[in-house]
Design goal:
alpha/beta, Rossmann fold, GMP Synthetase, Chain A, domain 3, seven-stranded mixed β-sheet, 18 helices, 28 strands, ATP-dep_AMP-bd_enzyme
Length: 594
């Protein structure tokens, strides 16, 4: 690497390279956008108020862990990110360049991310849980100019040649730069203490690249603009009612960045954000209590884990219930949470405090929301194959349902809308909807529909709108089974029906190929089952007879006659809820041939 630190003043003018050509591809407006304007405002209006607190657990394997906290105010966060922005420029990382950011949630993560945004450098954010092969492909596609990461990330970069052909600048965070480049401390030392002249971008310019997790397909780089970030901030402020001065237990790194933008402190617990199911509930409860958090952002895996941990063994025969009296709002997103897990979790909350279930995706979030009390009222419909209700569209979002097709749709027409009650693909429009994938023209063509000056996104999910305009989810488009007899089966309606059986923990619909009566190959539905290990489950003919009886009672499941017991479903690491049905389909096909 030839890059070195200099004391020359940083410039936020666009770099004249290919990266900025990509950045400007959606450029149509006057440059006036930058997420960091909110941080500037908080630094002026609430300079000494807490912006970020990061919890760490220290101690040996054999002793109880001690919890410690690192804090930073809004003014300090603003100043430190200014200094780092200057230092990045001195090192040659300038506006229009792209920088991989693989830093664990920490104060450094916040100062770095805001510094990159201030400098107009495009951060590339990836989910470490997506696997080595997918990570390498992400870096091949995004061609980063800089790699900013903890020592562990740099070791992986070296071992797996991540970004080898494009990276010219290396920054190590939280350790020595043994593998080249400079440390964040050196960046800060060469940064100026003067206020940084923020880079103002056109509202549709590329501000960040966020890669999808790959849990439902190949990871794709979603191009984020400051307009999208602003729309997300507005939704959290207006639709979710978040106010300045609140404190949020943030368990998802990207969401935690919105805290300072909302004038809300982000409290980061000691946990692996890529594997929330492994989090220690005691640490999270301790952080909530110390800072009297009013808001929580948790995914379904944490909802279930914390709900179970909330039931504590007391001194008597009856278990005691942990309480979270400071919490006023819980936001859940990432995958549908089960009603039973929400019910358990809600026992820790004060009366009237709800779990707000949000629907969306990396390409567009949030789109709709539904409170837990209303969700509880839909249990019977869900259990009888009506899908999962994800509520009403948030302000400014238009949700439509179109006929299922694998063909691209170039231009939108209202004639594409299906009537209420008809199942089809979910299509959305709103200010938080992304316009394109990064260097994935085919994927962009498949997922995007031009609607005048705006872009609609095809979610790849199936569902319907009821007569009141509420959205009901029926599963991924790729997970439907079109049987050879002409009947179509949808994953969520089918699975939720069978999940009512007391021995079934979860189920997964797949299609398998069999030889028909005529000798020709046919596609038939098959249900994979994971049984509840806490029960003494029967694997005999009685269980299969009961499953067949359930199938015959509902139109959504009529014709399903094949069942296979799987020891433990393959699921995504982050949510522990998204079932890898593609893997189960291969397993089921092989088992069926045995």
């Amino acid at each position: 690497m030839s890059a070195s630190l200099t004391t020359s003043p940083a410039s936020n003018k666009p770099a004249s390279n290919e990266s900025h050509n990509d950045l400007n591809s959606d450029n149509k407006n006057t440059a006036s956008a930058n997420l960091c304007r909110h941080l500037n405002g908080a630094a002026k209006n609430s300079p000494t108020e807490l912006a970020v607190a990061v919890q760490t657990a220290s101690g040996s394997f054999f002793s109880a862990k001690t919890l410690q906290y690192q804090e930073i105010s809004f003014l300090e966060l603003d100043k430190q990110s200014d200094r780092i922005a200057h230092g990045l420029g001195a090192y040659g990382i300038k506006r229009g360049m792209k920088a991989v950011l693989m830093v664990t949630p920490s104060v450094d993560f916040f100062t770095l991310t805001f510094a990159l945004f201030k400098a107009g450098v495009v951060p590339i954010l990836v989910d470490p849980g997506m696997g080595v092969k997918n990570l390498k492909q992400c870096f091949i596609e995004s061609e980063p100019d800089a790699f900013i990461g903890i020592p562990k990330a740099h070791l992986a970069r070296k071992l797996f040649s991540w970004g080898k052909s494009s990276v010219t600048h290396l920054v190590t965070v939280g350790g020595r730069s043994l593998l080249g480049g400079v440390t964040l401390e050196e960046i800060a030392e060469h940064g100026s203490s003067e206020a940084y002249e923020m880079a103002w971008l056109d509202e549709d310019e590329m501000a960040a690249i966020l890669f999808t997790s790959g849990s439902t397909g190949t990871p794709k780089g979603v191009v984020y603009s400051h307009k999208m970030f602003e729309a997300q901030i507005s939704a959290l402020r207006d639709d979710y009612g978040i106010k300045p001065g609140e404190r949020d237990l943030a368990t998802f790194p990207l969401f935690s960045l919105f805290g300072p933008a909302l004038g809300m402190a982000s409290i980061i617990p000691e946990m692996d954000a890529s594997k929330p199911i492994t989090a220690n509930p005691d640490y999270l409860f301790a952080a909530i209590e110390k800072y009297q958090c009013s808001n929580m952002f948790v995914n379904p895996a944490l909802i279930e884990r914390l709900g179970q941990a909330g039931v504590q063994e007391g001194g008597g025969d009856e278990p005691s219930q942990h309480k979270l009296p400071s919490i006023k709002r819980v936001i859940s997103a990432g995958a549908p949470a089960t009603i039973s897990s929400i019910e358990h979790f809600s026992k820790m909350l004060n009366d009237g405090v709800e779990v707000l279930n949000s629907y969306g995706a990396t390409e567009s979030l949030p789109l709709s929301k539904m409170g837990s009390q209303a969700l509880f009222d839909t249990t019977d419909i869900t259990d009888n194959g009506g899908g999962i209700c994800v509520g009403d569209a948030i302000n400014g979002v238009d949700i439509a349902i179109i006929a299922i097709t694998e063909q691209p749709i170039t231009y939108w027409s209202d004639s594409l809308r299906l009537e209420a009650g008809q199942i089809g693909e979910i299509v959305v429009k709103g200010p938080m909807v992304s316009k394109r994938y990064y260097r994935r023209d085919s994927a962009t063509e498949q997922a995007k529909i031009q609607d005048g000056e705006q872009t609609r996104h095809r979610m790849g999910d199936l569902g319907y709108l009821d007569s009141e305009g509420k959205l009901w989810m029926c599963g991924r488009k790729a997970h439907r089974v079109d049987a050879s007899n002409g009947k179509r089966y949808y994953s969520i309606p089918v699975e939720r029906i069978f999940n009512t059986h007391p021995q079934v923990k979860r189920s997964a619909l797949v299609g398998v190929e069999v030889n028909g009566q005529s000798g020709a190959s046919e596609i038939v539905p098959l249900l994979c089952l994971e049984l509840d290990k806490s029960l003494s489950c029967s694997l005999g003919a009685g269980l299969y007879a009961e499953l067949n009886a359930i199938a015959e009672q509902h139109s959504q499941t009529l014709g399903i006659k094949r069942f296979l017991i799987h020891p433990e479903f393959p699921v995504d690491i982050r949510h522990n809820a998204k079932i890898f049905r593609e893997k189960l389909a291969v397993w089921a096909q092989n088992k069926h041939k045995e």
